[in-house]
Amino acid sequence: MSSLYIHIPFCLSKCPYCSFVSYPGMSGLHRRYAAALLREAQGLQQNGGVAPLSTLFLGGGTPTILDGEVLADIVTGCTELFGLADGAEISIEANPKTIDLDKLSLLRRSGVNRLSIGVQSFNDRELQLLGRPHGAGDAVQGLRLAQAAGFTNISLDLMYGLPGQTPGSWRDSLEQAISLAPTHLSLYELTIEPGTPYFQQQTQGLLELPDEEALTEMDHLTATLCREAGLIQYEISNYARPGFECRHNINYWQNGPYLALGAGAVACMDGCRRRSTSDPLRYCELIESSQSAIVEEERLEPEASLRETVVMGLRMVDGVSREDLRKRYGWDVRDYYGKALTRLVDQGLLELTTGRLRLTARGRKFANQVMAELV
Ligand code: SF4
């Protein structure tokens, strides 16, 4: 399995909660950046040869901020260079304000077969507070256009725990999302990241977020509505119709190897994690002058990698395979974690069978605490 992530670090505007590598403006750099991506891809292929891609994921930022032709060039350039495995999954993230039928049709023709639309909410007031550049109507329109362009695998991203959000408004958003019949939903709780305007507002007591009771009710609504709609939870925040789980992300949660291109992109290959410069202009300059854009390299020791694989794998509802871990690291989780694991099992937070280790339903509620003990 070979996975490639391509980072497009440009957005229409910067959302006040966002800590991703993403920059508003910079439209003058878009084409140059795309050319640098392809040049970096060629270097990758020359340096060791890459197996045909099983998954390719264009994420951001807002990849669809680029012109359709530019995006199609990136996709076809990479697929011609690396080749595609049978049934390869090619995903792109989209903002509803940056797609039209022509662009979506072009993407579809270039081989993109999975579209992930960043909706976040179907409530215009919540969208405004989130600083999103689109309204609820744009999201509905975006999904209709994607269907018209021939996309049959469409994911919607929504967020809960938003300022001013109530269980009732979360229910409305979720019901609206489900009524559009997506094959996949990513439902993330808002987290307040240091360095963001939301973080500042929260420190000043200016951000009114739903309390624990409201969040629990939202979780309950999520579980009920998704189950009733036939969207099966397969990861802490992800739900899909059977067969539509995101294979690219499953590889991350299995702590599998992945290649990456672009500014701020992180790759993990041969037990080494590498991050490229976050500055898109610097990235272009380095690649154009045949230099490496990597600014950070971390070699993962086997034990650290084992712990990471366990913690990431526990995000999946199926958890981790004990046999896979034994083969990969030579350790059984029960022996490795000893008493700490037994205690978490006794507390009803983890389930250990002969084949697998996974979080219980109760454990998923306290996932962060459980993972903090195992990392
Ligand atoms: S659209 Fe996404 S990546 Fe861009 S600023 Fe908003 S949250 Fe960040």
Q: What is the CATH superfamily of the largest domain? A: Aldolase class I
**DSSP E strands, number:** 17
Quick one: biggest sheet? 9 strands, mixed
Assign the CATH class of the largest domain: Alpha Beta
| Poorly predicted residue ranges | none
Quote the CATH topology of the largest domain.
TIM Barrel
Per DSSP, the total helix count is: 16
Question: Helices and strands: which structural class?
Answer: alpha/beta
Estimated radius of gyration = 21 Å
Give the spatial strand order of the biggest sheet.
9-10-8-7-6-5-4-1-11
Tertiary shape: globular
The separation of the N and C termini measures 26 Å
Q: Quick check: average pLDDT?
A: 96
What is the count of structural domains?
2
Please tell me about this protein's structure:
The chain is an alpha/beta fold. It has two domains: 3-253, TIM Barrel; 317-374, Arc Repressor Mutant, subunit A (Orthogonal Bundle), CATH 1.10.10. It has 16 helices and 17 strands. The strands form four sheets. Strands 9-10-8-7-6-5-4-1-11 form a nine-stranded mixed β-sheet, with helices on both faces. Helix 1 (30-48) packs across helix 10 (280-288) and helix 2 runs parallel beside helix 3 (101-110). The chain is globular, with a radius of gyration of 21 Å. It starts with a strand and ends with a helix. The protein binds iron/sulfur cluster. Residues 11, 14-15, 18, 20, 22, 60-62, 95, 118 line the site of iron/sulfur cluster.
Question: Would you summarize the structure shown here?
Answer:
It is built from 16 helices and 17 strands. The chain has 375 residues and is of the alpha/beta class.
